[in-house]
Design brief:
Elements: H1 4-19, H2 28-43, E1 47-53, E2 59-64, H3 67-79, H4 83-90, E3 94-96, H5 107-115, E4 120-128, E5 131-140, H6 148-165, H7 170-202, H8 206-220, H9 224-233, H10 238-251
Antiparallel strand pairs: 1-2, 1-5, 3-4, 4-5
Helix pairs in contact: 1-2, 1-6, 2-6, 3-5, 7-8, 7-9, 8-9, 8-10
């Protein structure tokens, strides 16, 4: 965990990043990836994932801090069981401080989560007043509750993201929710396709492929979803992204994952 001063700086940066989305034109996919990564940095979670409801009210996985977490979130939807689903259904924070003790509550989910090395989970709803549009999952690699401060930070970031998604006035909120969430789902599909293309072309795992994709997005100040679209449609080749990643690494070496 970062020091108190480092936490304050990280929290300030997180709020600035999230506030930057409160404009008419922003990238929903990037917003949600910022949210899960800020949560990992600020609350000490081992991993984080986020689900949003589509226009039919079905939950879809929109962001995750790791590929492992994305698959676990998808598993929750598949078996219709888990903390994220409960948080979305109730609009309340759902906590399991020790997954070895929730066999009756989520028997299938708990077994798989434990097998992946997670020991606790906290699910925070994305809610504005009485409307819940999704949930944020925070996974821990050891049993125990989140501290009050960490939980407040997670709620603040989740609330800010919710406001960003539902920023239009009440008369247009339903229309904006439908359009933006459908757009986000379409972007997610394109991003997953782009990750697969990079992974196959470079013999990488999906996490490494995503870091190359996101690194190129940041370095060129181009939306993540647009980079993914260009890669999927062939306007950008995998070799171009690999060359750009290699150039970034030479300037400032950092691991791909």
């Amino acid at each position: 965990m970062p020091s108190s001063a480092e936490r304050e700086e990280l929290l300030l940066q997180a709020l600035v990043d999230m506030a930057d989305t409160l404009v008419d034109d922003y990238d929903v996919a990037e917003l949600l990836h910022l949210l899960v990564n800020h949560c990992v940095d600020l609350v000490g979670a081992a991993a984080a994932g986020l689900m949003l409801s589509d226009q039919r009210g079905s939950l879809q996985v929109l962001a995750s801090s790791t590929e492992q977490t994305r698959l676990l979130e998808l598993f929750q939807i598949q078996v219709d069981e888990g903390p994220c689903l409960d948080a979305y259904a109730t609009g309340e924070t759902v906590t399991a401080v020790d997954l070895t003790e929730v066999g009756e509550r989520w028997p299938t989910f708990a077994a798989v989560a434990l097998d992946q090395g997670f020991r606790s989970v906290h699910a925070v709803p994305l809610r504005l007043r009485k409307e819940t549009i999704g949930a944020l999952n925070l996974f821990g690699d050891r049993p125990g509750p989140l501290g009050d401060r960490e939980l407040k930070v997670a709620r603040a970031l989740a609330d800010t993201a919710t406001i960003g998604i539902l920023h239009e006035r009440a008369l247009r909120r339903a229309e904006v929710l439908t359009e933006q969430l459908q757009s986000a789902l379409n972007q997610r599909v394109t991003i997953e396709q782009a990750k697969g293309i990079l992974a196959q072309a470079g013999n990488l795992d999906m996490g490494q492929a995503f870091e190359i994709l996101r690194g190129h997005s940041r370095n060129t100040n181009t939306r993540l979803s647009l980079i993914a679209h260009d890669l999927v449609t062939g306007e950008v080749s995998p070799a171009q992204l690999f060359d750009a990643a290699a150039a970034r690494s030479r300037r400032s070496p950092e691991p791909l994952a």
